[in-house]
Structure formats: C-alpha cells, structure tokens
C-alpha cells in the first residue's frame, strides 16, 4: 500500500517538474508551418529563354514560436530546366529545353510539419522578326530575334553574293535568294536556329522613262542598266527590244547583249523618228532573259510630235447657274508653238440633245481660224449622262485628226423620253394640229353650203 502511494506521488512530482521546465524556458515550444511562398527576383519572369535564368526565393509563414532556421527543399518536374540548388532559401532556374516545368518548394520546421507550393516555369522558343524578306539590290533591312539570350546569338548567310548580314542587319548585294540564319548557342541549354529567306531583285532602269521628239528623222537613245545582277543577270544575259508604234519611229539599233561598265551592265538602243510629219507615241520595251527562268521587262515612252496638231480647251462643267460654255480650238506646230494660221476652216460637231449654239451673232466667226485659233460658245439644254457629252473640232477636210472635249451638264432637267429629244413629238404634234385645222376648215365649208341650201 505504501509502495503504491509513493509511486503515485513520484509521477505527480515528475509531471509538475516538466510543466515548470516548459514554462520557465521561453522559445522552446514547437512551431507549426502555416505556408510557404515562391517569389522571383525583381524584374525577372517565370517565362525564360533557353539558356536564360530566373532566381526563386523561398519564404515561410509559421504559427507559434518562429523557427530561426527553417528548412527548404526544391524539386523540378522534368529536365526542361536545371536548378542551381536543391535546398536553401534560393535557387536559380536555367532553361535547358523548350517546354514547361513545375518547380516545387517544400518547407518544414522543428515540429517536422511541412508545407509546399509550386510555380510553372515556361522555357519559350526563340523567334525571328521575319521569315521572308524581299529587297532590291543595295537595300538593307533589320532582323531581330526574341526569346533568346542576346550574348548567345550569331548570324550567318548561305549566299554572300546575294545578301550579307552583320548583327542582324541584312544588306542586298545581288539578285537571287539567300537564307539568313540566327543561331542561339547558350552555355547551358539547347542550340536553336531560325532562318529568314531573302529574295533580292536586281536594280534595273530604262532611261529616260519619257522623252519628246519634235523633228522628223531625229535620233534619240534609251539605256538599259542593271546593277546588283547577282545570280540572275550577268554579262551573258540577253536583251530583247520592242517598239509599239513603228509609224512614229523605228529602233535603228537594238543590241541583244550587255556591255560591262564597272559593276553594272549596260545595253543602249537607238530610236529614229519618222521622216515625215507624224504625231504618235512609241512604247519601247526592253526584256532581259537572265539565269534559268528569270526574265523581266522595263518600258520607256517616246512622244513623237513632228506634225501640226490641234488642242481643244474650255468649260468642262455647265449647270443651271452657268449654262454658257466657251471653247477654243488651237493649231500647234510640232514643237508646241501656235501656228500663225488665218486661212483654215474650223468644223465643229456636238450633240444637239444636250447643247446648242448660244447665239448665231456671237458665233458667226466660229469657222474662221485667226492667228491659229477659233472659238465657239454653246448653251446647255439638258443634263448629260455621267460620262458627259463630246464636242469635236477639226480643220479643213482633216476629220481623221479631229480632237474632242468632254462636257458635263448637271442641275438641269433630264432629256425627255429617256434621253430622246422632242423632234418626233414636234413632228407628230404639228401633224395633229394641221389635221385639226383642216377638219375645222372642212366643217366650216360644209356648214356654209348647208346654210345656203
């Protein structure tokens, strides 16, 4: 009985002593982990390129007395990334392969209670600003890459005779096709490449693009020049010439091969205007037949004015507030000067449905050319269609070279009977009136006879 009482008393004393120790020694109570968090360094992102990095920082929220030395562990979901440390408050993640990885942080304290959290790290693929470029010889254009470590980028070309590249700037140096490649080779991670296909056109001119000839049997030249021929145009390429109007003039010299001139290729043709007076336009075409199937053409215009010609000017629009239009026909020499002509007869033609002579007195001399000009005044009758109506003029018997001028009339009434004038109406109206008069006369005569009877 005494032994039992002693044992019970001893147990009570030990429990009391333990309670005294716990309450007398602050800071020795066990803490519980509430949560852990992951944050990247300032300015860094969970999206990184191959070879790029992001530093992750761990933190812990605890309940109870805070543990001064929490324990952290880092793990990754796959091999798309490397971790600089598997434990500790920080770890640096490096992108190795394109793809996503889950990085998990686990934290625990003295109580061996743990918490964890995860973030997704995206290792993104390198991109290039353009997959194709079209340039003319001598031109330049920039290329850039994204989602890559800048120091890991190098540039190259597979055809330096067509396009070169320095620091991403592409320069077209010759006709043809080149592939510009950007390579990213970081210290850690996969090597990536992106390619842009560059198409370069030779710089080709046919000059002058326009020129005028005002004398018969006069020569001029047009020069075809090729720069930056590259793979497409060389000294062995051929040229074919064409002339759209042999009446105006002819190509008296049309070489089919180029002559080298420095880095350029030259081919010059000679054109001779007609020996008789003629007005016309020749479109000169030069077609280059280069390497393989490459062919291209350039054109130039030659205006031949070796004969006199007419011009017609005046009011192009008439309306309800301005129904009078004045028009002047002028006879020019081939060089554009006005002919001192007082003998030619001018002929005019217009649609009477829309226009008429304003006054016979004012237009009495419309057919007489004086000092190379003649004038007419017309009066607007009805609205024209949207295409307008034409006024024509020519001199003497040369109607083949008449000139025209378009006149637009608005703000008036439209032609009756959907565009037809009143000519037939007037004719039938006159006939009806005549019949009525005849009927009245007949009726009067008959009535008089009946009365006399």
TrEMBL record:
The chain crosses the membrane at residues 424-445. The keyword Transmembrane helix applies. SMART domains: BID_2. Residues 202-285 form the Ig-like domain. The keyword Nucleotidyltransferase does not apply. Keywords: Membrane, Transmembrane, Transmembrane helix. PROSITE patterns: IG_LIKE. This is Ig-like domain-containing protein. It comes from bioreactor metagenome.
């Amino acid at each position: 009985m005494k032994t039992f009482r002693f044992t019970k008393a001893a147990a009570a004393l030990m429990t009391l002593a333990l309670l005294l120790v716990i309450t007398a020694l602050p800071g020795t109570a066990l803490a519980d982990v509430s949560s852990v968090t992951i944050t990247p360094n300032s300015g860094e992102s969970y999206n990184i390129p191959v070879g790029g990095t992001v530093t992750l920082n761990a933190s812990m929220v605890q309940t109870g007395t805070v543990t001064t030395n929490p324990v952290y562990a880092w793990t990754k979901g796959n091999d798309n990334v490397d971790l600089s440390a598997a434990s500790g408050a920080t770890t640096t993640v490096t992108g190795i392969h394109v793809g996503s990885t889950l990085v998990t942080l686990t934290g625990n304290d003295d109580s061996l209670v743990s918490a964890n959290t995860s973030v997704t790290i995206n290792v993104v693929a390198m991109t290039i600003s353009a997959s194709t470029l079209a340039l003319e010889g001598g031109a330049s254009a920039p290329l850039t890459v994204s989602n890559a470590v800048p120091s890991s980028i190098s540039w190259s070309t597979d055809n330096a005779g067509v396009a070169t590249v320095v620091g991403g700037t592409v320069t077209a140096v010759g006709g043809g096709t080149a592939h510009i490649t950007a390579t990213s080779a970081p210290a850690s991670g996969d090597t990536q490449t992106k390619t842009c296909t560059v198409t370069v056109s030779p710089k080709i001119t046919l000059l002058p693009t326009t020129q005028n000839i005002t004398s018969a049997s006069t020569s001029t030249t047009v020069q075809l020049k090729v720069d930056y021929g590259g793979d497409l145009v060389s000294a062995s390429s051929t040229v074919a010439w064409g002339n759209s109007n042999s009446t105006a003039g002819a190509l008296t010299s049309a070489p089919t091969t180029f002559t080298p001139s420095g880095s350029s290729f030259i081919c010059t043709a000679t054109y001779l205007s007609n020996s008789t007076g003629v007005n016309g336009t020749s479109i000169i075409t030069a077609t280059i037949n280069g390497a393989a199937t490459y062919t291209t053409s350039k054109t130039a215009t030659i205006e031949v004015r070796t004969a006199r010609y007419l011009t017609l000017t005046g009011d192009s629009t008439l309306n309800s507030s301005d129904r009078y239009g004045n028009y002047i026909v002028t006879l020019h020499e081939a060089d554009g000067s006005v002919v001192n002509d007082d003998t030619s007869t001018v002929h005019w033609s217009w649609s009477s449905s829309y226009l008429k002579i304003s006054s016979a007195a004012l237009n009495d001399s419309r057919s007489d050319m004086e000092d190379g000009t003649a004038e007419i005044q017309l009066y607007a009758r009805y609205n024209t269609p949207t295409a307008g109506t034409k006024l024509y003029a020519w001199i003497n018997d040369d109607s083949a070279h008449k000139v025209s001028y378009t006149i637009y009339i608005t703000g008036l009434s439209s032609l009756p009977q959907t565009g037809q004038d009143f000519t037939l109406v007037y004719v039938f109206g006159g006939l009806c009136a005549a019949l009525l008069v005849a009927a009245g006369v007949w009726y009067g005569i008959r009535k008089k006879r009946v009365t006399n009877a």
